[in-house]
Amino acid sequence: MINAIRYIGFFFLLGSITSPLNAQFINLQLKVEPELSATVEQNLDFGTQVTNSGRTTVQLGDVNMGVFSIRAFHTQNLYISLQYPDQLTNEDPGIENQIPLELDMAYNNQDTNDATNANLLDANRGLVSIHERTQAEFDQEIWKEMYIYVFGAIDVGNIPNGVYTADIILTIDYD
Q1: What angle do CA 113, 117, 123 make, to 5 degrees?
Q2: Which residues contact 3 (CB under 8 A, 6 or more apart)?
Q3: What letter would DSSP give residue 20?
């Protein structure tokens, strides 16, 4: 009985190998690019300050302003928001002195890194198109780049020396 099962199994296997195959094969390859990418082009830098140096300002267009680039699909709208604390704190937890911090944000959605063409965002948030488009541009590149500029001021009073920092969060949501 066992030999009969072996022969039946062998003939079944032989029959399936020798019979013509009616199969279709599809070789499908997809390249999916992310819908959005953000890059820090330059960090916001107020430079080295000394005690009682007063107010230091980094203006829109200054070499020390923060610059971010965002690459996205040309029809996307972005909701951008900047969140930051009111003060910089010393890295030494024993020092309670703080430095007041004020920040502003602007964007340029004309596909160039040029702060002279930037638009301010009221209250450091807003909904903007990745690119100001014209009808003729719809047939061209599908990926566009915009730039976000962060600038502002600090006021250094009578504080101990040290490194003062804060977490600044730039949030970009897209639809």
Answers
A1: 100
A2: none
A3: P
